[in-house]
Prior knowledge:
The structure holds 2 protein chains of 2 kinds.
Chain A: E1 3-14, E2 17-28, E3 32-36, H1 43-50, E4 58-63, H2 70-73, E5 76-79, H3 91-101, H4 107-116, H5 130-142, E6 148-152, H6 160-172, E7 179-184, H7 187-190, E8 196-201, E9 204-210, H8 211-217, H9 222-229
Helix pairs in contact in A: 5-6
Chain B: H1 2-37, H2 47-81, H3 85-88, H4 95-125, H5 128-145, H6 152-180, H7 186-227, H8 233-268
Helix pairs in contact in B: 1-2, 1-4, 2-4, 2-6, 4-6, 6-7, 6-8, 7-8
Amino acid sequence: MSTILQCENLSKRYGARTALDNISLKLDSGRIIGLLGPNGSGKSTLIKLINDLLSPTAGTLLIDGHAPGLETKKIVSYLPERTYLDENLKVSSYISYFADFYGDFDTSRALDMLQRLDIDPDLRIKTLSKGTQEKVQLILVMSRRARLYCLDEPIAGVDPAARDYILSTIINNYDENATILISTHLISDVENILDEVVFIQNGHIRLQAQVDDIRCNQGNSIDGLFREVFKC
Amino acid sequence: MLKKIFKYEWKTICPLLLAVHGVGLVIAVICRIGIRLMDGLDGNDNSLMAILLMMAAVMAIGCIVAYTYFYTGYRFYKSVFTQQGYLTNTLPVTADQLIWGKGFTAVIWVSLNFLWAVIALIILIASPSDVSEILHELPKAIASLFSRDTPAFVWLAVLSTLLTPFSMTIQIYASAAIGNLFMGHKLLATIGSFFGISFIQQILGLVILAICGPHLTRITYQAQEIEGNISYYTPVLNTMNLMMILTLAFSVICAVGFYFLCRYVLDHKLNLE
């Protein structure tokens, strides 16, 4: 199993505030990994660093052996916690956009998912509900055949039915050699699909473990362990 | 990738700007008809109304010209430094490709905007005889530009005019990049940065001219004395040429500086909330 992501002594500071403090982490390919922690723990900062949206203050970060940049953007598919779609464009425009820019984008897969959700590609983004916009964004991101998917809070702010759809989309649409990094604080909703978890708090890694190990050795669910570790 | 960035930026930016410029032309035509119906601008009872109509139309044209600058700059700000930036900045493209791809679109529109304003003013003001005269004289004016007698000053002025869309666009982009560095009120910071940069540029330009101006005058007069050809005309023109070159060089240096500032921010200082 090869390493898809490796960071050593990685730090990110915003002025006097430290978002990530000297963290070291190694993630293997072919796994669904939960990046779990309370709000403000540094999850989004780590994901933004992976996507070259922020520069580290110190330390190194390698994705498939490359520092974040042009090469890594070709293999990393990123779902931010906010909607980035231009409201004036049509869904079909985004399909063409992704197909043009990302060599690994599978147009037929995207159209198929849209059809199954009964979303007309000719509709403009502004005519869609917020939940549907998030689904369109997820479809675009998951229709890439990326090596690493970074999903930042993919199920926050959507109803339970939509959560189920989103999680099934994630599971059904990734290659087994790819890695999915899901950042969330809604543990119980995602714990059934995770292979591995990384607990993060105040910019420090508190725990990195296999889900099966937690269940067998500690006799605890991920949600239960999360509540123990992050007890207020 | 540069072509793709250009293509999508062009497709996004065109509908609104085409509509706005189309409305501007319609306004020019309507005002022209209105002025004609009021028997023109010559002293009669309706002349005040005609003048007001003319002023309103010229203001509308001016607003559309200014809006084009604003909109192209806002598009860059919005697509790179707001939520849309999460997509733009994770595309497999370099910062150079991003700036050039979007910049070309803006430069083309800003240049078209200038031509459009000329056409709108012609529709508004010029009589049919004026138009035929302009069409008659234009080729001659262009041909005379390439003649040997054309002073270098004219060419420098043309060059300066051609460079303006580039320097203005990159200045707007640099302002957006500086605005992105602020923790809040980024759009306001962008607008403030633009006017701040313009003010500093004006002051620096004046200082440079104040320092170099007397030297340039002395150089050209000395050269004149060496040649022994006493003329009042040539030294003044030479001084103007040198000052123009100095101003142009200053604009180019600023534009290059803005470009690298923009690139540095995109590569190292992105601050997406």
